[in-house]
Structure formats: structure tokens, C-alpha cells
Amino acid sequence: LFASVQLAPKDPIFGLTEAYVADQRADKVNLGVGVYYTDEGKVPLLKAVIKAEESIVAKRSPRGYIPIEGPNPYNSAVQNLLFGAESELIKAGRVVTAECLGGTGALRVGADFIKRLNLNAPCAISNPTWENHRGIFESAGFEVLEYAYFDGETRGVNFDGMVKSLESFPQFTTVLLHACCHNPTGADITEAQWHQVIAICKEKQLIPFLDMAYQGFADGIEQDGIAVRLFADSGMSFFVSSSFSKSFSLYGERVGALSIVTQSKDECTRVLSQLKRVIRTNYSNPPTHGAAIVAAVLNSPELRQLWEDELAQMRDRIKAMRQGLVQKLVAAGVKQDFAFIEKQRGMFSYSGLTAEQVERLQKEDGIYALSTGRICVAALNTHNIDKAAVAIARVLV
Ligand code: PMP
């Protein structure tokens, strides 16, 4: 039965972590991850999460099935976070939200749902993008195209290229857009450029699908929601996948959501009914714990404030590491201009390191990064940053 099964390639990120774990060097550094670490190099357990969890555990609730689309207190908290508590769309009942298994699950449920609309159109992802985007949409049966995004010269967005690509796509192409903190490049488009993207999506009748995996990691909850708010104002129907893996440090709980903006309350009812079929035939209904934590935090003014403070600390620490790395590279004698690292946003930076340089870092110093040169700035800390800067300076020569 399995004689002809081929060995699949390892996932580039999880595969790299396996190599890192096997490395015996005490001062090894893993910058290949997609996880925020504290200054002590640990995955944080947020105080807001601990408090919420304590109150949930104290209740000793039974674990019956929850609704297919997840619990209402969670889904409405997600909507408020994405669209703003005063959103006209929410008031008009035009947004459907379903709890999903992390941002990944939300993308997949969304992809399956769009596929069932039988539009016979492709999906387009940024070049480059988070490697799972392609896999998710291909697995859902889409042809996957790419739109130009990163400019290797400026280390920012090649916006002209992006516009040209978007304009070339056929009607009903699903366009996957990073709402903020682009993974892997850290380069985001500006508010003015979002307006242009929206105009193209409207004119060409593209289907916008915003992937919001890092809300709060660039400038703040509200500020990072700008793309969602602008699309909400545009009057278009669109999709948002969101995740609490990073912002709540709840990676393993798999807690995310898919939100769909429709044209009317009636459309919402019909869309939700179909969404439930997608979910029911996939994993039936979502898990209880992660969503209960997030709902408890977001629906309590006191815990929400605590969470926002903790999120701000994570954001500020990443920014300090960005600044620190740029300064330390200069101090280590690097002549090239690395100031772009400070401008990039979120957990990642496309460092410009070549695959050979990344390989040398791994071999000579036990510093792990992706062969594309993506480094996770959120894995730098005051204990490893000097070593990282000196090693990077050495391989750059
Ligand atoms: N989208 C992007 C752009 C991501 O970087 C990630 C996580 N690396 C996800 C979605 C999925 O996150 P989750 O762990 O919540 O599935």
C-alpha cells in the first residue's frame, strides 16, 4: 500500500528547528523561528492569559460541543478588535465570524468556502510570502499566482510592480494581502497605497483576503487594523483571517478566526450557513480552551488593559532589538546600510543575507536563519544580539 509513497521534503521552518535542537553548541541561536521570545529566550505566558485561565479553570465547566462557528462572546470580540467596536458593518449585521484553528485554519476554511462559490478563478499571493499560503490554497484546489511585492534594492515594497500584477489578474481572483507586518519581509504598504490597492480590487473585481496574523506587533491594535478598516469603508465584500497565536502567545492552542464581510444581514445568514458546512465536514467544531481565554481577556476591561500593556512590551522589545542590531552591525564594522531593519515591521526582517551566508552562520556560529535571509528579530535578545551582530558582520565580508 505504501511502497510508492515518496518522502516529502521537511517544512523549511520546522525542519530548521529540528536541526537547531540537535545542535550541541551551548550558545546556539535560532533566528529561523516564527515565534516571539522574551529577553530570556522563552515563549511568554502572558499574565492576562494566566488570569483568564485561572478563572476558567475555577469554573470547572463541562466540555460539551460548542457551536460549529465557535462561541458568540469570542466571535464578537474578534469583530470588535478587527473592525472597531463602533463599526457600522458590525451594527448592520454584515460581518460573519467563525472561530478557526489558528490563522492557518481560518485561511483554509476561507479557501474552501471560496472554492465552493465556483468562480473558477485563481488565488494570488505576494512574492515572497509565508510559505504556507501557497500550500493552503493549492490544497483547496486553487491555481496559485504571485504578485510582485518585495524590492531587493530598497528592501521595501515594489509598489509599482504590485499594482501592475494586481491589474493583470482575472476577475474574481482571490488576492491574499498581509494586513500588517508582512511575513517574511517586514515591509508593509502605506495607508495611501492601501487606498490604491482597494481601488484596483474594486475595479478589477478581485476578492480581497486579508491575512492578519500580527495585529498589535507594528504600531498598536488600532493602527495595525488600518487595512481592515479601509476595506470596511470601501463597501466591498472581503475576507479576513486573524490569529491570536502571536498577540496572545497562544501558539499551541490554535486560536484564530475567519471573518467575512458581506453586503447585507441576509447575505450573512446564507454565508454562515455554507461556512458551517465547510467546517462541519472538516473538523466539526472548534476547541473550547483558547477561544475561552481570548474571550475572557477581551471582554474584561481590566484584563484587556493588561493584555494591551503586555502586547506593547512585546512590540517595544522587538523595536529595541531592531535598533540594537543596526547599531551593533555598524559597531562591528559593517559598511553596508542596514537601516532598513529599523523600518521593517513585525517579527521578521528580510536581512539580505544570501543562502551561502546563512549556511556559514549555521556552520560556524550555530546561528540559524532561513536560507532566504529571513531572520526573526523577535528571537534576538540582550544575551544573543552581540554574538549575532559580530557573526553577521563576519559573513558579510
Ligand atoms: N499568516 C501568516 C502571515 C503567518 O505568518 C502565520 C504564522 N506564521 C499564520 C498566518 C498562521 O498562524 P497560526 O499559527 O495562527 O496558524
From TrEMBL:
Cite the InterPro entries for this sequence.
Aminotransferase_I/II_large (IPR004839), Asp_trans (IPR000796), NHTrfase_class1_PyrdxlP-BS (IPR004838), PyrdxlP-dep_Trfase (IPR015424), PyrdxlP-dep_Trfase_major (IPR015421), PyrdxlP-dep_Trfase_small (IPR015422)
Give one GO biological process term: L-phenylalanine biosynthetic process from chorismate via phenylpyruvate
Enzyme class (EC, first level):
transferase
Which cellular components does GO assign to this protein? cytosol
Assembly notes: Homodimer.
Q: Which cofactor does it need?
A: pyridoxal 5'-phosphate
Provide the family line. Answer: Belongs to the class-I pyridoxal-phosphate-dependent aminotransferase family.
Q: Which UniProt keywords apply?
A: Aminotransferase, Pyridoxal phosphate, Transferase
| Domain Aminotransferase class I/classII large residues, every copy | 27-392
Q: What is the protein name stated in its UniProt record? A: Aminotransferase
**Enzyme Commission designation:** 2.6.1.-
The answer to keyword Transferase applying to this record is: yes
Q: Which Gene Ontology MF annotations are present?
A: identical protein binding; L-tyrosine-2-oxoglutarate transaminase activity; pyridoxal phosphate binding
